[in-house]
Design goal:
Belongs to the D-alanine--D-alanine ligase family. This protein has 386 residues and is of the alpha+beta class. α1 links the parallel β1 and β2. The protein is built from eleven helices and 16 strands. It folds into three domains: 127 residues, Rossmann fold; 134 residues, D-amino Acid Aminotransferase, Chain A, domain 1; 68 residues, 2-Layer Sandwich (Dna Ligase, domain 1). Helices cover 29% and strands 24% of the residues. The radius of gyration is 24 Å and the shape is globular.
């Protein structure tokens, strides 16, 4: 007799091994005057990282330029009671080996042979200003063969220098406001001629800025030509290369840009408008980070056609500068609906109040997802000529 039996149940499959966590070094602090802002940004990034997916190595750079291992304690990198955080010398010293066959951090301790710490899969350089956002660190990471979040050497350097940035944007046909660059050589040769050029080419008010600065540090609004020399001296205390920009009567609007894979057009975020209240003459460091006197509308209340033009110009500026990964593009929207590009920031602030993450949150991309997207983009892009 043909005996039929139910088939035996399949043996349970071996559980899949957990995916190996990739290692990300979050590098922050640095030698620029934006050291504290970088620390606050890094604290937010560290808090948002998915620890099931990432093995995190926080690396701080002291104001003197020493690289040290920092405790993975994001809460210690917040602004508390107006006190700004910073990277202290007390950590174990490390260096990034400029050797693509090693791709790792090396521990340096006095009197001991340097020892490898760990291979790094990707770096998130949460650095603002010179010696971090300006192509210098990006060059080191290229030499080391370690992928990193954000733009490469040229785009980082050109976007950091407001004079070079505006020249490239203007050459690409993008609308920018009038400006004059005062180089160190020209200033040392004939400061009076430099001042005369500014007075001859621009009209009051003007904004005097360090060419390679950020977070509104070292910026002076000048409404009387007699105050111009002191304003230039203030800017030069941050950077010997100075830019003087024509004051623009318009609304300050910002747009975030994220790169897209496979040559697709980058994505533009919802827009933000910044309005300064109180006694501030402009959107300065205190208004940005300390006293809460800046009001921000996200999304910005703009006519649809104006908002579309701003987003289109943001992507065009991103591509004209050769940016990668991310950028925040700042604009002036004039009363007649005209739009001027003001700045391109290749590593915008990542603090809890920063516009870049807020604009993407309003676009449906929350902070942890944003951080993850940027890291995946960096790994996909890799290093080398591209």
């Amino acid at each position: 007799m043909d005996e039929r039996r139910d088939p035996l149940p399949a043996a349970p499959a071996d559980p899949a091994p957990p995916a190996a966590r990739r290692r990300v070094a979050v590098v922050f602090g640095g030698r620029s005057t934006e050291h504290a802002v970088s620390c606050v940004s890094a604290g937010s990034v560290l808090a948002a990282l998915d620890r099931d997916a990432w093995d995190v190595v926080p690396v701080g750079i002291t104001p003197e330029g020493r690289w040290v291992l920092v405790a993975d304690e994001p809460e210690k990198l917040a602004i508390r009671g107006g006190a700004l955080p910073g990277v202290e010398e007390s950590g174990t010293g490390v260096v990034l080996a400029g050797d693509p066959t090693r791709r790792g951090l090396v521990v340096q301790e006095p009197g001991r042979v340097p020892a490898p710490l760990a291979e790094v899969d990707v770096v998130f350089p949460v650095l603002h200003g010179p010696y971090g956002e300006d192509g210098t660190l990006q060059g080191l990471l290229e030499l080391a063969g370690v992928p990193y979040v954000g733009s490469g050497v040229l785009a980082s350097a050109a976007s950091m220098d407001k004079g070079a940035m505006k020249a490239l944007l203007r050459d690409a046909g993008l609308p920018v406001g009038p400006y004059v660059v005062l180089t160190p050589r020209a200033w040392d040769r004939d400061a009076e001629a430099c001042l005369a050029r500014v007075r001859g080419e621009l009209a009051l008010p003007v904004f005097v800025k360090p060419c390679r600065g950020g977070s509104s540090l070292g910026i002076v609004k000048v409404t009387d030509w007699d105050d111009l020399p002191a304003a230039v001296a203030t800017a030069r205390s941050h950077d010997p290369r100075v830019i003087v920009e024509q004051g623009i009567a318009g609304r300050e609007v910002e747009c975030g840009v994220l790169d897209a894979p496979g040559g697709e057009r980058p994505r533009a975020s919802a827009l933000a408008e910044v309005r300064v209240t109180g006694d501030h003459a402009f959107y300065d460091f205190t208004a940005k980070y300390l006293d809460g006197s800046a009001e921000c509308d996200v999304p910005a209340d703009l006519p649809g056609e104006v908002a579309d033009r701003v987003r289109d110009l943001a992507v065009t500026a991103f591509e004209a500068m050769g940016c990668e990964g991310l950028a925040r593009v700042d604009f002036f929207v004039l009363d007649d609906g005209g739009v001027l590009v003001n700045e391109v920031n290749t590593m915008p602030g990542f603090t809890p109040t920063s516009m870049f993450p807020r604009m993407w949150a309003a676009s449906g991309v929350d902070y942890p997802e944003l951080v993850g997207l940027l890291l995946e983009d960096a790994l996909r892009r890799g290093t080398g000529l591209r």
